[in-house]
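Open question from group meeting: does this chain pack into something compact, or does most of it stay loose? Before anyone orders reagents, we agreed to write out a predicted structure and look at it together. Recording both the input and the output here so the notebook holds the full record.
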Amino acid sequence: MKKIILFSFALFNGIAANAQTWDLRQCIDYALEHNISLQQSRIQQKESEVDLLTSKGQLFPSLSFSTSQNVNNNPWAEKFSYTDGTGQISSGNTTYNGSYGLNASWTVWNGGRREKNIEASKITLEQAELNTEASANTIQEQILQYYVQILYARESVKVNESTLELAIAQRDRGKERVEIGDLSRADLAQLEAQVAQDEYNVINAKNQVERYKMQLKQLLELTGVQDFDIATVEVSDEQALSELPSVTSVYEAALLSRPEIRNSQLSIEAADLNIDIAKAQKLPTINLQASTGTNTNSANSFAWSKQLKTNWSNAIGVSVSVPILAQRQNRSAVEKAKYQHQISQLNLQDKQKSLYNTIEGYYLDAANAQAQFKSACASVESSSTSYDLLNEQFNVGLRNMVELMEGKNKLLQAEQNKLQSKYTAIMNEKLLEFYGGESINL
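Structure tokens returned:
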């Protein structure tokens, strides 16, 4: 039994020691490799590569082999025989014949549609790659947000634990004052109720940490049973107040690097190609055909191999198809392609506008959070000094319970506001840097 207990204890310690702690870069790298939506996007990218190969394959001839084997039965046919160049033909009630052919076809020219389709497939492939990149960017942004929220929630736990320790000390001091008759039991009950409330606040703050960790694990595609924790990053007040890049500089950099903008630009190029493809439908199509084949018949007196040779024939030809009237389909296709071109241009303008609004929003949120952080720092210092004075006065009976609780709640709120504004500023600063072309890191 001792051995079992010691082994279990060692095993538990080994598991605890091996529990992995992830920094922000590790989270991002792991998600970029294992996230299911990203894997699906990469598969769609592979499909686009196959479509490009298919488009290129249209430049080459097609070749096919065909054969047919038939049994014919004429139960009341009169028998006869004759001789021709292929041998003696004898009729019968049942005959067997077979044919064998090799056919080739090649589109010599179709108005340049094949070449345009290849270019369109290349654009589609590049758009698929950009969609994957856009999905990766979105996941990185979400990971940053959850990571920073976990850091904030952890700091919030520390604040609430500190507040709980203070409440316990006040309650214990209150008990001593009740014993000497310096404090009423009603006031002591309020102090005990405050301890219970602060204990709940600690539990709630810890649950918030676990909730954010669960959401981060979902992005990483980690199961619920896997040990997971993030590395603690010491974020200074100076980082929260670092100088923000201008909206214009970030926007100009984003126009050159963001995949959604390039994707919209490619849509315009694809629309141009679709116009050319639609116009090419009005042009003639030239096809080259060639075939070779033979046939056999059981009614023939020649051997099967000789029939194959004797009946062998070859053919080659050219066909030209000139569209004259197509029930307005070609003209409609051109008009619709032009409308799609206009839609693509409007989509690009909308993406550019949306990008600017996003960057401006991050900038305003960061600037506002920095202003709140400065104010919160001053408020924490003032509230802390005020609460220390209230606590001293309460201990000597110069302040009542209501005034003490109000001072404590004001201090707690100021500390929470400081933490929230600090991490909000840092998160938006990092998002601005990311949109400006820098990698995400803390």
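Observations to bring back to the group:
The two ends are 48 Å apart (CA to CA).
The chain has eleven helices and eight strands.
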